[in-house]
Design a protein that fits this description.
Elements (H helix, E strand, L loop, with lengths): L3 H9 L14 H9 L7 E5 L2 H15 L1 H7 L3 H4 L19 H6 L3 H11 L15 E5 H6 L1 H12 L5 H11 L15 H6 L1 H4 L2 H18 L5 H4 L4
Parallel strand pairs: 1-2
Helix pairs in contact: 1-2, 3-4, 7-13
């Protein structure tokens, strides 16, 4: 559904408030909905530390596509896991049969380029069509203070954060559930946000830093120099 006309038709089918999730949509794709269709659009842009995103994707591909991942595994000792799994820059031929690899450009290089082109910090001047319509949410900020960030989101869309919603947010982000599956919707958000620190190797962190240092700085993340950079 990543076309302006399809999104416009989708929105016009509904009356009242409608929320939909779009993965890696460009802001320019959404512009016609406001400028041409006159839709009262609010954009909540969720971004995550590229290191956390990469770590999650490694886990996902190994868990859900074991046959493809098995072809990549012999390259792990020398190259790390990102490049052989098609998550760093180029996508190896043996990973191409995975449809979402082609659809969503899951590479670190592609992710960071998308963030560069589409992320607006509070200090950035917004174009007229986007003013009052864009709210950036940093995943790790939400993980640290879910209710604070949820309040900001609801203030942005002009709706009250009701007690039952506060209870729901707290329950979804402070779970002690034994369900550790990748797509479990109830987790300890803070642990999940920082899991990459133990999961990524030094080599993999260096690879991400090389591609995304400016993005880490843009989003306010601290590059782990003491671990990543070689000793002088």
């Amino acid at each position: 559904m990543h076309s302006a006309s399809a999104l416009g038709d989708f929105c016009k089918e509904f009356k009242g408030r409608l929320a939909t999730k779009i993965i890696h949509a460009d802001l320019d794709l959404l512009k016609p909905l406001v400028v041409e269709d006159g839709i009262n659009l609010k954009i909540i842009h969720l971004v995550r530390d590229p290191r956390g995103a990469a770590s999650s994707r490694i886990n996902y591909l190994n868990g859900y596509y074991p046959r493809n991942a098995a072809k990549a595994r012999p390259f792990f000792p020398n190259l790390g896991r990102l490049k052989p799994l098609g998550l760093l820059d180029d996508i190896p031929e043996y990973m191409l049969p995975i449809e979402e690899i082609n659809d969503n450009n899951p590479t670190v290089q592609g992710l960071c380029q998308w963030i560069r082109e589409n992320t607006k910090r509070s200090s950035d001047p917004l174009p007229p069509w986007l003013q009052g319509r864009y709210h950036l949410v940093i995943y790790e900020d939400f993980a640290k203070a879910p209710l604070t960030e949820a309040n900001k989101i609801y203030n942005f869309i002009g709706m009250p954060l009701k007690p039952e919603l506060k209870k729901f947010v707290h329950g979804m982000t402070h779970s002690n559930s034994s369900d550790t599956s990748l797509f479990s919707t109830s987790k300890d958000a803070h642990k999940t946000a920082n899991k990459w620190m133990k999961y990524l190797t030094v080599m993999e962190e260096r690879q991400i830093l090389k591609e995304c240092l400016d993005v880490l700085q843009l989003l306010g993340y601290e590059p782990n120099y003491t671990k990543i950079l070689p000793e002088s």
